[in-house]
Amino acid sequence: xxxxxxxxxxxxxxxxxxxxxxxxxxxxxxxxxxxxxxxxxxxxxxxxxxxxxxxxxxxxxxxxxxxxxxxxxxxxxxxxxxxxxxxxxxxxxxxxxxxxxxxxxxxxxxxxxxxxxxxxxxxxxxxxxxxxxxxxxxxxxxxxxxxxxxxxxxxxxxxxxxxxxxxxxxxxxxxxxxxxx
Length: 181
Prior knowledge:
- The chain has one domain (6-170).
- 38% of the residues lie in helices and 17% in strands.
- It is built from five helices and six strands.
- It has helices spanning 31-46, 84-96, 102-120, 141-149, 160-170; strands at residues 6-9, 15-19, 54-61, 74-81, 128-130, 137-139.
- Strand 2, helix 1 (31-46) and strand 3 form a beta-alpha-beta unit.
């Protein structure tokens, strides 16, 4: 697996990343690194460090293998990180570990995918707690662990059903005699 990613800056300041594999082949990350990225992103948001827009160009060969360039018989998946909040979180991860490596990019996209799935999967609300007064969000360790290892889909998001299956295998069962709500 290639360890570096080609990065180019456009005249308008946007960054473009050429990645030699598709999002669904990005590796898992350690849960503690995902938590570090989460904390760094919160700090960057508080400091209003928005970061530049980013365009991720994932090379996808039609035969299912990765390629460093875009040869004949391949296609590209493009993912734009243009939303101000997403740019902030990407900038935080870039400053923390760098987005010019497969590991750094995997960390960034898992962080963004976690935030995105939390906004659309109401059932996940049992696995995080929002502190009153803007004090942040506390993540349940099993949610963090699942997000660290759940594969991304071709759009760099988490499949909600797959995440539910993974979480159903990792959540502890209630003790005997303890009512389940």
